């Protein structure tokens, strides 16, 4: 099963956007993520629909943050991306009449539901500005280690 990395990728993009002096084009974001600009536009459109980013077409246009990182949580972005499962593991549904599959699904479903609820509750408490501070601290440490100011 392929993992869904859209959440971490969009968090990456939004924090970079906060560091920029102007809009980021879909092409620039696509290069950063090693993907296609069409994929970027489709994904960013969901964030625009929720009011987290804005877009301007044409020369000098691109994507910009519409709100402060302090006003966006991990849960907000998770919802804006379509609320895919937060886990790559899940219940089997290939042999729904098999008694073993039924027993296995019954045994693990409660744990998965509890774990997802706990994770999403934590997502609600983490704003993107907190991640950005970690980025800034990391950059200071890297610059210090390299002897840069």
UniProtKB/TrEMBL annotation:
GO molecular function, one term: DNA-binding transcription factor activity
GO terms for cellular component: cytosol
PROSITE patterns: HTH_RRF2_2 (PS51197)
InterPro entries: Tscrpt_reg_Rrf2, WH-like_DNA-bd_sf, WH_DNA-bd_sf
Domain of life: Bacteria
One Pfam short name: Rrf2
Protein name per UniProt: Rrf2 family transcriptional regulator
Species, as recorded: Marinomonas profundimaris
Taxonomic lineage of the native organism: Bacteria, Pseudomonadati, Pseudomonadota, Gammaproteobacteria, Oceanospirillales
């Amino acid at each position: 099963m392929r993992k869904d990395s859209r959440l971490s990728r969009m968090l990456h993009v939004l924090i970079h956007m906060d560091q920029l002096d102007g809009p980021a084009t879909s092409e620039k974001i696509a290069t950063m993520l090693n993907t296609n600009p069409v994929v970027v536009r489709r994904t960013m459109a969901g964030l625009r629909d929720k009011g987290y980013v804005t877009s301007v077409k044409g020369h000098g246009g691109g994507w910009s943050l519409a709100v402060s990182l302090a006003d966006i949580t991990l849960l907000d972005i998770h919802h804006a991306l379509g609320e895919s499962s937060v886990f790559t593991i899940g219940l089997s549904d290939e042999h729904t009449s098999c008694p073993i599959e039924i027993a296995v699904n019954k045994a693990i479903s409660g744990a998965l539901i509890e774990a997802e609820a706990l994770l999403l509750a934590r997502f609600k408490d983490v704003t993107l500005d907190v991640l950005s501070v970690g980025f800034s601290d990391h950059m200071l440490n890297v610059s210090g280690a390299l002897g840069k100011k």
